[in-house]
Every structure is written in C-alpha cells, then in structure tokens.
Amino acid sequence: MDFEYSDKVQKLRAELTEFMDEHVYPNEKTYHEQVGGADSQWDTPPIMDELKEKAKSAGLWNLFLPESEYGAGLSNLEYAPLCEIMGRSLIAPEVFNCNAPDTGNMEVLKMTFEMIDAENRLLYSSDYPHWDFDLPSVIYDLPFLDERAKRRILGGNACELFGLEDAKTHGPAGGNRERV
User: Fold this and answer.
1) Which residue of 12, 59, 121, 175 sits 20 to 30 Å from the alpha carbon of 70, by its own alpha carbon?
2) pLDDT tens-digit readout, 72-101
3) Least confident of 81-85, 115-119, 173-177
4) Alpha-carbon gap, residue 1 to 56, rounded angstroms
5) What is the pLDDT of residue 48?
6) By C-alpha distance, which of 57, 51, 60, 58 is closest to 24?
7) CA gap 101, 85 in Å, rounded
C-alpha cells in the first residue's frame, strides 16, 4: 500500500500548518481566558467564532467530509495526516469543524435526513427558554441542507402541520410570505 502523501494532501498539510501557526496557536490563551470569563459554560468564546470564519475563508472547513461539495473530498488515508496536525491543539478540531461528534456523524446524519425525507417530514419544536443548546443554529449550520430545507424544518413544516398558513408558503402567518 502506498502511504505517500498526494499533492492535494501535501498542499492541505502546508495550508493547515500555516493556519495553525498564524491563527490557532497564538489564540489558545485567549480562548481559555474567554472560556474562564464566560457567564455560562455553554457560551462560545468569541475568538472561536472568529477562528471558524477564518478557517472557512481559507477553505479549511469540514475537512473530514469525503465529498468535495461540502468538505475537502478526502479519503480516511488522506484525512489522517491532517488530524495529526489538528491534534496538536485542543481547540483546533473545533476551529476546522472536525471535532467530535461532527466527524463521522455528519455523514450518518446526512444519510438519515435523506432516508426520512427530512425536508418534508421533520419539524423543529422546543420548550424555550429551557434549551440545553441552540438546536436551530445546529440545524441551520448543517452543510448538506439547502435554504429551503432549513426553512421547512425550522418552521414551515410546523405551520403546515398545524394549519397556520398555506402549505406552499413559509414565514410568519399574516406577514410577508415567500413562495418556495
């Protein structure tokens, strides 16, 4: 078996190493300070959001996804050396959206959403303000859902189910509704 890194992996390793040196390592202390000073253990430190945006802009997002439409399109063999680099920092996997439980679970979640026809059969509801985490943003950030599917899951399907508006429209009942 050939374990030599492909040109693609060598390029990603160089980009990842440069990003880690320039952005991740210098901000580890800031991250830990912001975690320690947060009002709640569930608050995301602002530096993490900044680093995630930079990683997305640099094309270093969802590296674990084997399909290139949403991720880097790497095999496990190609992804492994990138994990070795990200593993040098406790915050790096989250910065690149390659942290557990996303790694691996995202593929299972995508297949599950397709199998259950989530766009038409899944709806979100909550017992706000008693959320343990911000599920709407978790659903909204799923890379394999288009905007229409997100709108249907996060409100459109519930409106249809409860007869709150026309099944072909989405948005607040009685407000400006968008036809999809």
Assistant:
1) 121
2) 888 888 999 999 999 999 999 999 988 876
3) 173-177
4) 33
5) 96
6) 51
7) 19
Distance of CA 168 to the CA centre of its chain: 28
Q: Are 179 and 168 in contact (CB under 8 A)?
A: yes
Single-letter residue type at 31:
Y
Q: Of 133, 137, 54, which Cα lies nearest the Cα of 96?
A: 54
Cβ-proximal residues to 20 (8 Å cutoff; 6+ apart), any chain: 85, 86, 88, 89, 92
- pLDDT recorded at residue 177: 41
Residue ranges of domains in the chain: 1-99, 116-180
The total of other beta-carbon atoms located within 10 Å of residue 102's CB is: 18
Return d(Cα 60, Cα 72) in angstroms, integer: 8
Helix or strand (DSSP H, E) at 178: strand 178-179
| pLDDT score at 154 | 79
- Please give the single-letter amino acid code of residue 107: E
Q: Which two tokens stand for residue 136?
A: 């709407």
For residue 67, how far is the Cα from the chain centroid?
Answer: 15
Topology of the domain covering 1-99 = Butyryl-Coa Dehydrogenase, subunit A; domain 1 (1.10.540)
